[in-house]
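Possible regression after last week's pipeline update?

I re-ran a chain I had predicted before the update to compare outputs. Posting the input and the new output here so someone can diff against the archived version. Not blocking, just want to make sure nothing changed silently.
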Amino acid sequence: MTAAMAEGYDAVPDLERERLLRYLEAVVAVRRTPVHAAVAFNAVYFGYHLHGDGYGRSPLRLDDFPVVTLGERAAALPVGAMVCVATGSDPLYAEILYKEGAHPDVGSLGDVPAWVSGAPAGAEGPGREGAEDSPRRRELLVPDPNAFGPGVSLSPAQLHRLRTHRRWINEDGHIVIDACYPSREAARRDDLSAYADYLLTTARAQLLSPYVPVSLAELVGSTHDDVLRIGLLRLLDTVRRLLASSDLLRMWGPYAVTREALAACWRDTGPLGGDDLRTLAAAVEHAATPSRRRYGLAAPVTVYTAVGPRLRAFPGAEDLLKGVEYAAAVCRANVTLADVVQRDSAQGLFANGARVTLDDAFEGGGVWRSHYPGDTDRTGDPLDPAGQGWTSTTATAPGQVQEQEQDPDPDQEPVDAPLADDAALGPSELLQTGEEEIVWRLPLRLASLIDGCLPLCSPIAGELRTAFGRRPALRLELDHPGGSLDAAEAVQHTVAELGAGADRLTGVVWPLDFFPGLVVQLHWLRGSRVIRAVTTRLDRAVQIGHRVIGHCYDPCVLTREDAPGSDRNGDTAAGLGPRQLVLRTVRRCGLLTPDGHALLDRSGLPLAVYGRRPARTRSTALEAAVAELLAERLLEPAVGSRDTTGRPHFPARAGERTIPLIGYRPALIRVIQPWGGTGPATGRMRGVQYVPGHLRRLLPERSASEAQRTAFREHCRRLGKADGWELPEGYTFVTQHTRGR
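New output (post-update):
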């Protein structure tokens, strides 16, 4: 892995892409099972050995793995999680390769009640989402017990004994648990976002270990949580997109399988081979068609079929669905169904009059919907999970369904409402309330920079008003490491306005390099008239757009308030060209995500820019500007959904009408300081590649020098690793450096 991969797929040089792709293809071929993008990330990040040892040579600490037990309630685990299955004897260490819903109402032949298909976690019945804010869902996890090499893997006899007892894993070698999610939002997250959350919380020590080949903190040049999250999501996305680009692999959702394995399966005439897969496809195609025509109109029929349980019904399939082979069989079946739908139907509509679509990609290994007559059914991408089973039970009146399928009139209702209320953008965060000192943190807003003020949170404002009155004179001391402050900026005499509805310091002179989103940590000693404001320097500067940033910042505030037309002299769109207007509008009006992305309904762009329907010439100019920005990757396309009130959502929600979005992604570029430089570079060094510090395996009977051991201890300190100072046996440490011209 390289630092460029933490900046996004498009930032990775072709040579690095090719090298990583060749390794990922080898991982998928060696593991002989579908490889999820999160598992592929693990292989690269933690060092999966291709010749039998798996993660056996990696620095992973087995004692850090969460413990799970068959049938018990446990925190939801994403695919990619490394776990310990507690047993009566030796523990079973495994990597979760695959998971699916295991709803108890799914029949043994794969028949699924309509409301189960696409239902949210915690749903209790048709149209009943459940009252719990922390929903539970029955899930089946497929572990790989051989992922960590022969040194810690159980023997076949031990595994067979565990399966027979059915106390820790079931007879198929799988784990079925009641997965508990911290919130409904967490249960709706896509696989890669869920895995990123898991790595940054439960598996944080594992993720930030200095023993991994190259630590995430080193790749992104920071230990700040927001920067780590953005870099991790981009790394995961880079791996996913590389898998999808391979000519040797096929994808089913986030899972990659080799084309060679698929072809071998289709040629096989045994159980779950080509004949059985063709039988499955025919059964799904004809599941809803009447067996005999009668006079008059036949009543509409809808059938939902879960792939996993349906495969178990084939003769001789039982032994082929144990262990990791179950995941392989399910993915092969879904790929086969997808190919049949794409090849033999028109948008899912077959010649027999039935329409077949994927309705739920998670429950039971994938739920396919067969509906007859299909020509009256809604159209769309048949491979886009629509969740029509669940939504058909949530519409209690015809008016609700009709309202859901209609687009709101953009002249009557705006569609560019932000995801979160912008009044709550960049709130103060109270860090410490002690007997002697109060410490809090906030990002600077554009209004504060323009007006020369500093908001005060309510606990401090209340105590100041009690001690000194409504307009006390206070001293503000600025500390800006790595920046330049003159004497008038470092120590300022200000006046506090308290109790007038907006508690703040006034008369503040902000340094010229302070920008919207810059995070300031403030300290106040109780009883004093001094407030100290400190910025936190990043380990390595980054560049976002035109701005080089060397200190911690809030990405959401930066996206909103550092848009074109916004600076410390004012905030106006006057005089901006079409390109700047588009960028400004997407950033100011789009849906905000926690990492600073902004997404806007593309159809609502003209109204958002001008406040009314513009003339045709202006609309044409905006569309041309959007096309240019997309081509230059300053904007990116996305897909969201819109609910019945006209409010957009991202990611798209099941049962809602999908809409095209245009998104602004703050492209983060690592700034490399030139040799001998004293400040951050103003741009990228052309022809020079930054190589972060990393471990390197030594030849047998070699040992690391004392200088490298010392360098590794310093590396650990930079990463915030207070323990584990010593190099692991058999490794040396290569210090960070640049290479190239």
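Follow-up from reviewer: compared with the archived run. The longest strand covers residues 92-101. Marking as no regression found.
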